[in-house]
């Protein structure tokens, strides 16, 4: 990665965290759909980022959000799980052999359908872990599943819209 790419990634990291902590934290639809745009900090990292760095960045991102949400590691656990699953999802989603190492995860590069699918799958992994950790019981299975699906759609649409309005 070049210095410019590193600075761009750091800027996006800070932007998504500030956006989550100051603005999106209060965005809740009908007490079921929560928006967690901070996961884009991990989703939009370049593909050549090693798994170790992905896990470290996912943990730091989750801990920062946990600090402001007072959730004691729930976001960190869910974000690390999502970061761990990311290389597998990328391998299964990218069709062109040899292109995996040079791909940039953006709406412009992947196209609307592939980008939506990529964000949706990883957001589903994150939200499933987050809401089942929060529920800590299978007795709340139906409300938890409703929260997972509604929040995954809300987060995915939000990230795609942010990418749509900020792309070059």
Write structural notes for this entry:
- By secondary structure, this protein is mainly α.
- About 70% of the residues lie in helices and about 0% in strands.
- The protein is built from seven helices and two strands.
- The chain has helices at about 5-20, 40-45, 50-70, 75-95, 105-110, 110-135, 140-165; strands at about 30, 35.
- Helix 3 (about 50-70) runs antiparallel to helix 4 and helix 4 runs antiparallel to helix 6.
- It is globular and about 50 Å long.
- About 30% of the residues are buried.
Give structural attributes.
two-stranded antiparallel ribbon; mainly alpha; 168 residues
Strand order of the largest sheet: 1-2
Termini gap: 20 Å
Element order, helices and strands? Answer: HEEHHHHHH
Number of helices: 7
**What structural category characterises the helix and strand content?**
mainly alpha
Enumerate the spans where pLDDT stays under 50 for 5 or more consecutive residues: none
What is the β-strand count? 2
Q: What is the overall shape?
A: globular
What Rg is obtained from the alpha carbons, in whole angstroms? 15 Å
Instruction: Classify the helix fraction into a percent range.
Output: 55-70%
What is the percentage of strand-forming residues?
under 5%
Mean pLDDT: 86
> What characterizes the major β-sheet?
2 strands, antiparallel
Protein name: Rod shape-determining protein MreD
Transmembrane segments: 6-24, 51-69, 114-133, 145-165
Keywords: Membrane, Transmembrane, Transmembrane helix
Give the arrangement of secondary structure elements.
Blueprint: H1 3-22, E1 28-29, E2 33-34, H2 40-43, H3 51-69, H4 74-93, H5 107-110, H6 112-135, H7 141-166
Helix pairs in contact: 1-3, 3-4, 4-6, 6-7
